[in-house]
Amino acid sequence: MTEMTASEAFVETLVAQGVKNVFGIVGSAFMDALDLFPAAGIRFLPTVHEQGAAHMADGYARISGKHGVCIGQNGPGITNFVTGIAAAYWAHSPVVAITPESGTLSMGLGGFQETDQLPVFSKITKYQGHVNHPRRMAEITARCFDRAMLDLGPTQLNIPRDYFYANHDYDIPEPIRIERGAGGRASLTQAAELLAQAKFPVIVAGGGVIAADGAEACIALAELLGAPVVTSYLHNDSFPASHPLWAGSLGYQGSKAGMKLIARADVVLALGTRLGPFGTLPQHGLDYWPRNAKIIQIDADPKMLGLVKKISVGLCGDAGEVTEALTEALGNRSLAGSKSREQRLATIRDEKAAWEDELTRWTQETDDFSRDVGSDGSRMHPRQMLRELEHAMPKDAMVSTDIGNICSVSNSYLRFDRPRSMLAAMSFGNCGYAFPVAIGAKAAAPERPAIAYAGDGAWTMSFGEILTALRENLPVTAVVFNNGQWGAEKKNQVDFYARRFVGTDLKNPSFAAIARAMGAEGQVIDRVSDVGGALEAACRAQRDGKTTILEMMVTQELGDPFRRDALSKPKRMLEKYSEYTVA
Ligand SMILES: Cc1ncc(C[n+]2csc(CCOP(=O)(O)OP(=O)(O)O)c2C)c(N)n1
Ligand SMILES: [Mg+2]
């Protein structure tokens, strides 16, 4: 035990947990601790908005595999975190949100910047630590960091602001990191048995493979089985796209090849994925989920096992270690799928070739609305632009994607060879996600190009963070799809509301000019032939510290909608609304 102030105990615990970067906006509530950050070797990265800080912490965590940390002023600074923390929750990011609170002596009196901060985060955190006595500062701080890693998700560290000022004897806890292990023995044997009997095994590689650094193990097992590997929704980086067994991603705007292959599976090995409902919905008119297949599911969180899809065997463990154990267990068994291995490899090749061919020919959308609005010759067809971006993408790029129609269509064109490369808004699906996340990613890996894809609507929610990229020397590239509309939502009005557009048209300024005015590089691109070169140049410019906004002028055509499953044809009962149906 050493006598120190609570601020010192807090900062020393951060140091013990390996914290090097903290995102946030300055506030009196934690200034006594903030004052020590430089001496403790912790960089404070001021952002434009606390939502941006939470997203940056998320991007930082997902790229580095370490904690992402954000902090803000009690009350409004903390409520500004909410969307970012909710997104991190569904991305399984070990983010620690440090939330200084009103002082204990005024709490409940409705003083200044007061709100009850624990209920706000209760459903979007894995653990909430409340420092209920200054003497517990180090203990509870450490627990929030330990639990974020243990449960892989955000935790909240709530600290009454007056508690920074005490002094006591403190022990700074060592971080607790547990080995998750390879799951139960009996279940492993059962799983190995099912895989050995499988005639057409298919692997779904999810975020758990990335979190466990289990990509190599996944490749080894896939090769042993001769099994195609599909990646789970928006985890396109969980299996290398250049590998012959890669079959692309499931879910919205995913790979038809992957969907057709998994439809044929008799055994599915779901590795580190909760098989989320949105990520397994029918797509491209394909209801591909193999209802009669045996499903083996592996997840670090036992509560995910069998939650969404019916399973035959559930294994709670580390996706990498379970996979290694399965490979070992299968090493000395004969595999029923061996006989058809060559045939299966040929099927994988054929399905992939057919899908690539279809993507190459799919240069524009062909529904009536897209035909009506897609012929503006001064603008690019989104799919052609996305294909060019794909071809020009640097090998080591980190790409974050927002929520929107074009960002979603990009799913088919985003391929990666290394894990920790794709950062999408995942199942929380908030607009305004991608750009701050790319800045956080850059802080974690300054040597890699960081690229954000964002629609124009989402961009206007987030472009203020250009200032953070510039001020903190975290150069990134934003690719902004300027189609003058909240396209993804407009698509619903096209399909269900007879093109009655309410609130979906956007009148835009020049985003490139705004970027330049803010001190970044800004470029307008309206020819497909310029796309690849512009992306390459912008990524190169990151090495010279330059942040570039590429404003892509695209037509208003729209790909398939997000939620065909969730909308119904409008029904009207009142006479005055009788015309408000589908034409
Ligand atoms: C914070 C937030 N607000 C609203 C929505 C609903 N929403 C989903 S997609 C979308 C439109 C996105 O438009 P844009 O960013 O311009 O991309 P586009 O669809 O035009 O490609 C909206 C408003 C959301 N997902 N998140
Ligand atoms: Mg748009």
Could you write a compact summary of the structure shown?
Helix content is 37%, strand content 16%.
Descriptive keywords:
583 residues; alpha/beta; 6-stranded parallel sheet; binds thiamine diphosphate; binds magnesium ion
Report Rg: 25 Å
Beta-strand percentage range: 15-25%
Helix count from the secondary structure assignment: 23
Helical fraction: 25-40%
Low-confidence segments, given as residue ranges, are none
What compounds are bound to the protein? thiamine diphosphate, magnesium ion
Helix vs. strand class: alpha/beta
Average pLDDT, to the nearest integer? Answer: 97
Distance between the termini: 75 Å
Largest sheet: 6 strands, parallel
Describe the structure.
By secondary structure, the chain is an alpha/beta fold. It is 37% helix and 16% strand. The chain is built from 23 helices and 20 strands. The protein has a six-stranded parallel beta sheet, sandwiched between helices. It has a six-stranded parallel beta sheet with strand order 11-10-9-12-13-14, sandwiched between helices. Helix 23 links the parallel strand 19 and strand 20 (548-553). Helix 4 crosses helix 18 and helix 16 packs across helix 23 (528-542). The longest helix is centred in the middle third of the chain and has 21 residues, at 341-361. The model has no long low-confidence stretch (mean pLDDT 97). Thiamine diphosphate (TPP) is lined by residues 403-406, 429-432, 455-458, 481, 483, 485-489.
